[in-house]
Design a protein that fits this description.
Layout: H1 3-23, E1 30-31, E2 37-38, H2 40-77, H3 86-101, H4 110-119, H5 131-178, H6 183-237
Antiparallel strand pairs: 1-2
Helix pairs in contact: 1-2, 3-5, 3-6, 5-6
Length: 252
């Protein structure tokens, strides 16, 4: 039932009360000229009764109006948000994950790291290790460090490229959150803003992991270089038994 209909009902009730007052025939009445009978006491009681009935109807109408307003507010609170940035957020995280998966030489894998450090980053070199092997390992470690720095810069570039998309998503989400008409829309826009912050944290984690990987490989290269130098010095100084004096025969 609409508010306009309530108003029409109220108007009709006013008219009905007026008619009732006119046609009321009091038991004890006073006769005036023209045959009109009027009883003031009965008239006053009828007016009070009609006023009480009218107030009761008015209260019922107000109650129905309040219920209608409550239903409208509940409908607004249950209205979905016609905007979603989750697809763009998921795509951005997927791109960053893909860049991490393209790591060159030593990947982000525990088994691959253990294998590389067993062969190329030994704790110490044996004294009999050939010089060619020492040179090959040193070159491999240098290439690993260089590739890791390149990988870190690629991840950083990917995150920077996503900044413009992140900026657009933030503007859109703030706009729809400010124009939200209900609690559900406000909650959904807030959840998407939290998801956007999570994406930024994921990108930051990826950048830090790539930088740490490059620094770790470069640090391991520096340590192994010292070990290699010690092994080469030991081989150089190990020139055998040295000069041994003996009898020399110059003429036959």
């Amino acid at each position: 039932m609409t508010i306009k209909r309530f108003v029409r009902i109220r108007t009709a009730l006013f008219a009905g009360v007026a008619v009732a007052l006119v046609v009321t025939a009091p038991a004890s009445a006073q006769l005036f000229g023209g045959g009109i009978v009027f009883d003031p006491t009965n008239y006053a009681q009828n007016v009070l009764t009609a006023a009480r009935e009218l107030q009761q109807v008015t209260n019922e109408i107000q109650m129905l109006q309040n219920q209608a307003t409550s239903l409208i507010n509940q409908a607004r609170n249950l209205q979905n948000l016609n905007f979603s940035s989750l697809g763009a957020i998921d795509q951005s995280i997927t791109q960053t994950t893909s860049l991490l998966g393209q790591a060159q030489r030593i990947s982000y894998d525990v088994n691959a790291i253990n294998s590389a450090f067993t062969t190329t980053y030994p704790v110490s070199y044996a004294g009999s290790t050939p010089s060619g092997q020492l040179l090959t390992d040193a070159q491999t470690r240098w290439q690993n460090a260089l590739a890791a720095y390149q990988d870190a810069m690629r991840v950083q570039a990917g995150v920077v490229q996503n900044l413009e998309s992140t900026h657009s998503q933030i503007d859109a989400l703030v706009g729809v959150s400010q124009s939200a008409t209900g609690a559900l829309q406000a909650a959904q826009s807030g959840n998407q803003l939290i998801a956007l912050q999570t994406k930024q944290l994921a990108n930051l984690t990826a950048v830090m992991a790539a930088i740490a990987r490059a620094q770790s490989l470069d640090g391991a290269r520096a340590i192994e270089t010292q070990e290699q130098v010690q092994a080469q010095n030991a081989q150089f100084l190990n020139y055998g038994a040295g000069y041994q004096p003996g009898n020399a025969q110059m003429f036959h």
